[in-house]
Design goal:
4 helices; single chain; Nucleoside Triphosphate Pyrophosphohydrolase; 21% helix; nine-stranded mixed sheet; alpha/beta
């Protein structure tokens, strides 16, 4: 199975709000091919290009998806590994989550690809309390469990695996 090395960014603003995007892609499903019927929220990020390290992918994705260029990039903190069916082919998603901070909260979509314009429906800054209270689907599913430690400044010495 073809691996897909992906960087996800836990982008926080000065109020410790986390940026998530709401999306739905009818060409992406679980390992069985089943597509979620409703949109879901995920962190920003994407697939690493050849020769890119985690930091380069994160900076590129932040710029493309938000228009933000003034960010402080922290270390990798979490990993996940799971299978998704993308355009009918199973891919092994190997995701690394990096923490990042910005003082800017104004977002733009100027750098979005045509595909991103089709599948991303919204961008929103979330407080921890809002994340804990929502009934909407958020990936990774264990984000709300692990985010409080990061917000308290408890950054792991090396990234650890979380539930996707």
């Amino acid at each position: 199975m073809l691996p897909r090395k992906t960087v996800r960014v836990l982008l926080l603003d000065p109020a410790d709000r986390l940026l998530l995007v709401r999306m739905h892609d009818p060409n992406v499903g679980d390992a069985s091919g089943k597509v979620l019927r409703e949109a879901y929220w995920v962190t920003i990020g994407g697939e690493s290009e050849p020769g890119e390290d985690f930091a380069a992918t994160a900076i590129r994705e932040i710029g493309e998806e938000t228009g933000l260029t003034d960010v402080w990039l922290g270390p990798p903190v979490w990993t996940t590994e799971h299978v998704l069916c993308i355009h009918g082919k199973n891919r092994l998603m190997q995701e690394t989550f990096l923490i990042a901070r910005t003082d800017a909260t104004g977002l733009n979509r100027d750098g979005w690809t045509d595909l991103e314009r089709e599948v991303i429906h919204d961008m929103r800054w979330w407080t921890l309390a809002e994340l804990q209270a929502t009934s909407e689907t958020i990936f990774p599913a264990s984000l709300v469990q692990h985010l409080p430690d990061l917000l308290r400044g408890l950054i792991p010495a090396s990234p650890f695996a979380i539930a996707p």
